[in-house]
Amino acid sequence: MKANVLFRYRVMAYVTAVWLLVFTVAIVAKYGFDTGDTMLISQVHGVLFIVYVVFAFDLGSKAKWPFGKLLWVLAAGCIPFASFFVEPKITREARALIAGDATPATADA
């Protein structure tokens, strides 16, 4: 697995998490205080979430995650603040896989 797969996932995890928080604040403002509009924010978050799903699926397939783990990572993009806790754990695991791929293979010949 290449490091750029992890980098793409990390960037989208943070960007999507921040936009989800912005969207959450906009929803609270709209329905709690009857101010603002959420149309543009929701559309931006929707597009970013789709890109996040693609990159998380790419990382998961290359890391050979079980389906349940992939679902948990994808669900973290739907729960405010969850991505900030899930992303560092996934990054540690993926970096270990990348480091394992980078070590030279010993040939038994």
Give me the secondary-structure topology:
Blueprint: H1 3-33, H2 39-63, H3 67-76, H4 82-102
Question: What do you see in this structure?
Answer:
This protein is mostly helical and 109 residues long. 80% of the residues lie in helices and 0% in strands. It contains 4 helices and no strands. Helix 1 (3-33) packs antiparallel against helix 4. It starts with a helix and ends in a 7-residue tail after the last helix. Residues 104-109 have low confidence and may be disordered. Keywords: Cell membrane, Membrane, Transmembrane, Transmembrane helix.
Summarize this, please?
This protein has 109 residues and is mostly helical. The chain is 80% helix and 0% strand.
Strand coverage percent: under 5%
What does the overall shape look like? elongated
Mean pLDDT: 86
Number of beta-strand segments: 0
The total count of helices amounts to 4
Rounded to the nearest angstrom, the distance between the terminal CA atoms is 26 Å
Salient structural properties:
109 residues; elongated; mainly alpha; 4 helices; 80% helix; single chain
